[in-house]
Amino acid sequence: MTAGVRVVLAAVGVLLATYGAWLLVSRESDLVDVGTWLLGGAVLHDALLVPLVLVLGLVASRWLPRPARAPAAVGLVVLGSVTLLAVPVLGRFGAREDNPTLLDRDYTAGWLVLAALVAVGVVAGTIGRIPRDRRGGRGSNRCSG
Fold this sequence. Notes:
Layout: H1 3-26, H2 31-63, H3 66-90, H4 107-129
Helix pairs in contact: 2-3, 3-4
């Protein structure tokens, strides 16, 4: 990545962060609630997700074949992060009887579809990491002659 691309990406990031801060202040949001939400996310990540992924990664490194280890680690990180973000909707926190348009979908089914897609990605990544001659393709041990 060139220095120019990095400068452009950094500038876009600063602009988006500034816009987000302006929206937060201009809409008279409850900054204590916002801070609690942000702090809670960091605590959940550091206290729950990271240790769980580390333990599962250690277990996987002992039980999974070498080609499956990296795809499984990526799958764990993706699914763990998305699950933490989805806890409010999966638990239906904020649903109210007087407003049926809040949380009006089957979020559990959506999460299950995502989990299946991540599992397919892990399997595809594993297959892609297996050397071609072990997958039944033409290898170096062909008979000549």
